[in-house]
Amino acid sequence: MNEVDSLKKIVRDQARMLQEKNRLLSDLEYRLKQNIVTDSRKEDLAKFQFQLSRQTIDGQAGLLKTILGSIPSGLMVLDAEKRIISYNPAVQNILEIQDKEILGKPCSRFFGESCEMHCLLEKAMETGEAQCSREVRVRTGNGREIVLALDVAPIRDSHGNLIGGVEIFSDITGDVIRESQLQKKQDSLIHVLAKIMEKKDHYILSHSERVKDLALSVAFEAGISEEKDQQELTYASLLHDIGLISVPDEVLLAKRTGTGKPVDLIQAHPADGEWMLSNVEGFEEIKKIVRSHHERFDGKGYPDGIKGDHIPLASRIITLAEAYDAMLHDTATKQRSKEEVLEEIKANRGSQFDPGLVDIFVSKVKG
Fold this sequence. Notes:
Layout: H1 3-33, H2 39-70, E1 74-79, E2 84-87, H3 89-95, H4 107-111, H5 116-127, E3 131-139, E4 145-156, E5 162-171, H6 173-200, H7 202-222, H8 227-239, H9 249-257, H10 263-267, H11 269-277, H12 284-291, H13 313-329, H14 338-347, H15 355-366
Antiparallel strand pairs: 1-2, 1-5, 3-4, 4-5
Helix pairs in contact: 1-2, 6-7, 7-8, 7-13, 7-15, 8-12, 11-12, 13-14
């Protein structure tokens, strides 16, 4: 039986005990009101009722203590002066501090006035609104740096007055280290793939670099604000044409010079690109973006013919950035000015391109 199952069993057992005690209390109260018992027994029953009530309260307190003692996250309750007045055992384990060092001490004593953990508490207490941070770096009592996922919330009394705050945090140091290691592996892979693309066709690499810059320039305003999502957009932009590696050189040359259009082979490259990235750890979303970067907003694109919001947002951004760059730099097409290309982009607003993204893109490129 794992820890979660054990905790569930404890909660169920405690709940059954409390339900039985509450049932006995209700039965006694009913009997007293109905005067079923004599006056000489009422005092004894009243004492027994009080004792049973006390046991019920103690049982509820014990249940809460059991739950808080079993969860792996740290929980600290602070008063209006930001002094720690209660905490669970995980706080000591995570922060590596002794019991005598915690109770009654201000939060800033452990983390410093400038630490984000203290700053978030200050903000929650000042604004009366919950705060959170996914990566807070603090030093433990042993001087070791750890990374916490932190949630802070104000506590109000029954009249709505602010009387304190609560901090709930988890040690995510291991996850952050693993993500960093994975990031390094992915960066190395991108570098290798870029070299392969350059060897295949220098245009593919330079085109992909420009598409990446264009895509990132509109990402935030388009709704891609999280660091993880922006990283995925970066990788997908650089690798969106990776599938062209499988296209024979003579076919690519024909496409570049405009002497032929081997449509089937060229149009297979988004799906080929997805396949090439299918076994790369952490590229689950990136391969989907690569697959869909030639879809059209009206559903007339390839390889799947999906349309509108069914196309990943990152793919819609890359579609727009790629088309703009190709019209400016592809030697197979007539060279156009930036103004002519933007007019072409606007002419395909709502058909080939996401209309909302066109407005953002044109504004960014013009600016």
